[in-house]
Each structure stands twice: as structure tokens, then as C-alpha cells.
Design a protein that fits this description.
The structure is a homotrimer of 131-residue chains. Chain A has helices at residues 18-28, 55-67, 81-90; strands at 2-7, 13-16, 33-38, 44-50, 93-99, 102-103, 109-115, 121-130. Chain A has 131 residues and is an alpha+beta fold. Chain A has one domain: Jelly Rolls, CATH 2.60.120. In chain A, a hairpin with a 2-residue loop joins strand 5 (93-99) and strand 6 (102-103). Chain A starts with a strand and ends with a strand. Chains in contact: A-B, A-C, B-C. The interface between A and C is medium-sized, with 33 and 31 residues.
Chain lengths: 131, 131, 131
Amino acid sequence: MKIIEIETRRRVEFIEITASVKKAVKESKIKEGICVIFSPHTTAGLLINENADPSVRKDIISQLEKLVPRDGRYSHLEGNADAHIKSSLLGNSLNLIIHEGELILGTWQGIYFCEFDGPRKRKVYLKLISD
Amino acid sequence: MKIIEIETRRRVEFIEITASVKKAVKESKIKEGICVIFSPHTTAGLLINENADPSVRKDIISQLEKLVPRDGRYSHLEGNADAHIKSSLLGNSLNLIIHEGELILGTWQGIYFCEFDGPRKRKVYLKLISD
Amino acid sequence: MKIIEIETRRRVEFIEITASVKKAVKESKIKEGICVIFSPHTTAGLLINENADPSVRKDIISQLEKLVPRDGRYSHLEGNADAHIKSSLLGNSLNLIIHEGELILGTWQGIYFCEFDGPRKRKVYLKLISD
């Protein structure tokens, strides 16, 4: 198992981890298989989406805020109920394919750690499986 | 393949299955690998989120109800269109990592079967893969 | 790795790929394992849901449109910000279990490629792992 350490600097922030995941795949020397990424946090998520125009991430963040407002009425009294719900909508694990020694991603795809209750020290676990 | 049997008692209910999944991992004797959890139902979902304060689950359920009201106007005439949509938003499979013979979960994470159209008898399938 | 080629004909459309995935599982001759499905696109998603009454798909599409309207106010100026957000909500990978040589699916489950910015030529990658 590999660990990626992440330090977020804002309450809500999408941090790209594509390069770290690609590095772990290279180092594993696995030619064909899969890569599972798992976040052990309940107020953050994982997402694969556009890596080119940063306005896409801005739109995803602001639409999630419209759907699940930070200042909505919630039972959970720690002030981060919205972060738990946003985390539930995006999910906290990803599956990727390793083919010919490379992580398979579309041209416009990047892998993001989605912080919804930062700033915090976070981590993400990777498990690579050879077929 | 292992099967976890679940009996839900309400229309909407999140039932924790963490202990059953951990038991399956222990019994498998796999030291390093992954655990795939799959729900074969179209009106339920699977979720990993907070296992401490139950108000978090209440908030997730009630925000999903705001976003996808049970009594909205839908084409599907069985009265459970909202359950299909909620299931689509959460998803029906999960990936977990097994490391040093243990299922990896964050301190505050529990694994939940999310019933949206109960009460019913349900099941969840597990497949453990060694690396 | 197997590739499924898909040609979408509308802007928004859910195309069933269950038969192609089942074929790939049969051809692999894997008896026990998992099947990872990955979409390399940022304006499409993957979903497992009801394969019987097509009104369920219609309801999922129209509720997603209510939550993330095509003509909302977004920063991304290519006119498809909604498609990126819908893709993020559904996700772009799936996990399935292979047991006794068969892909495990519930009676009412079908596997769908969810186009949100078509018509386009798309593809989906499959990786089958034996346990």
C-alpha cells in the first residue's frame, strides 16, 4: 500500500494528485492491472474530471454548494454537515486501469482530492493489483 | 464470493455493515489486496461515511430527500422513482483496501447499506482479491 | 484491456452496454474475479440501474437536469459545464464481481454509459482481474 500525503489550505479545494498516482504506478512496475485509490476521510471526496480549464472545478464546487449549502439547516452540530454530504455525493474511492505499464486516463482527465472541510492534513491510500 | 443478508425495516434507512465486511476479510486470510462490495439492487446504495454521530446519516438522508423528493413528478409509476435516483447518486459498489490482513478504514468511517425503498430483504456481495 | 466503442446520437442519452460487458467476461474465461469499467471522458458517466422500465432512465436524466441545469450560470464557457458536473455526480468507473464465470448483476440491473454532451464517439475500457 502506498500513501499520498496532502495538505489542504482552504475550506474547500480540489487538489490534483495525478502525478503522485502515476509515480506510484511506475514504481510498482506492474504492466497490467488496476489501481484502487481510497480516501479515509468523511468530509472529503475523490474525483476524476477536467484537468485543463480550472473553471470546471470552480463550477463543480459552486454547484455542489448550491445543492448542499454550508449554512443549510442540519442536525449535525459541528458546522461541517455539508462536507459530509458532498463527500457522499462524490464518493471516496476510485478505480483506475493500468495497461502496458501506464495509468489509463483520458486526455482531459485529472485525479483530484476534494477537500470540503479544510484546511487539514489529509492522506490517500493506493493499492495496485496486477492481473 | 461472500453474501451479506440485510433486512431493512423502514422505507429509508442506512444500515451499518462494517462488522460483517471486516469478518469476511478476516476469514479470507488475505494479507494484501482489495475488497469489492456490490449491491444488486436499483433502489438502494452503498456509502462510506461517519460512524460516530448518527445525525450525519440523518442529514445525508434529509438532504437527498430535498434534492430528490419522494413526491416529485416522475414518469416511473411505481412510486419509487426517487429511490432509483438516490441510488444513482450514491452508487452501488465500493472499493476497499486490505493491508496487513486488515480492512483499511478511517477512524470515523463506517460502511452503510442505504435503503431507499424498504422495508425489504436485501443482500450485498463481497469479492476479495489478493495482490 | 478490452475497449467498447460507443456512438451517441443525442446530447443526453443513456446507452446500455451490459451485453458487451458480459461478452468480455465470457471471452476472458475468468471464473472468479472482478471487472473494472472505466470511462476516459469528463462529460459522461457510468451507471448501474434499472433495465426494465425506460421511464426510470428518463426520471434520472430529468432530475439531474433539475439539479444541474444546462443553462445555469457557470464559469466554464464551452456550454457543457453541466455535463462535467453531472459526470462528477455519477462517477466514471464501476466495479463488478465475476462469480462462476458470470458477471453478477441484480435482476433489474443494467450497465449504462451516460452521455451528457453528445453526440460523440466515445469509448469505455474494461479490465478483468482473476482472484
